[in-house]
What does this fold into?
Amino acid sequence: MLSKRLLAVLDYLAVDDYVADIGCDHGYLMASAIDKGLKKVQLIDNKISPLNVAKKNLASYDAKAHIKYTLSDGLKEIDKGVNVACICGMGGDLIAKIISDEKEKAKKLSYLVLAPNSKVANLHQMLNKLGFSIVDEKIVEDHNKFYFIMKVSYGVPSLPLNDIEISYGKYQLIKEKDVYSKYLMLEKQRLETILKQNKLSDTLKKNFNNELSKIEVIINETK
Ligand SMILES: C[S@@+](CC[C@H](N)C(=O)[O-])C[C@H]1O[C@@H](n2cnc3c(N)ncnc32)[C@H](O)[C@@H]1O
It folds into this structure.
């Protein structure tokens, strides 16, 4: 059974997509994608041992789909017909690097599904810089951790993310209202607790108060 996080990623994939899973590790996401009905998948990892584990885990799937395994870095060797890339379970900075290293390839994809496990704001910022748009975004709580999952495309007319959206996602699109409210409330409490300790430099204090104001704006706008 896939984690809640990877189920949210799977939800974005359509049966006629040819998907490359960058950093496939165990290969569970593409196994479930084949179960969902996808007929072509490429599993990419830059380390041989996870790729071999994925091959073992998907051995019984050979007859159901065309499966390609590639030992490679990021998007460098995505197959010609691939129209979707998933880059999940890595830090936001690494995902940003993988996209910017091969931005021409990334721009040609129909969409990318990104699930950073940290540094979400940095990833949002880089997507803005490269001209990618967030066409949809979800939040998932999995084992007491919150994950933003985003569907991203190049060349879709939309405004760049503003400062609030860079920090807290494209909140107008997030449908998981209860999870998102819980995330904002916990984030607000975390910032307030640190501020109360009164140990921050003036610059950090200003940054923390700025983040709190952004959270207030979202709470007021989404009431
Ligand atoms: C923590 S696992 C995430 C697995 C899965 N995608 C998930 O979300 O559960 C990260 C995987 O990414 C691979 N990886 C890290 N950097 C990579 C890169 N530049 N190109 C391809 N794979 C990479 C690692 O070897 C590892 O198997």
Q: What stands out?
A: The pocket of S-adenosylmethionine is lined by residues 6, 22-23, 25, 44-47, 50, 73-74, 88-90, 94, 98 (CB under 6 Å). The chain has a mean pLDDT of 96. The longest helix spans residues 177-196.
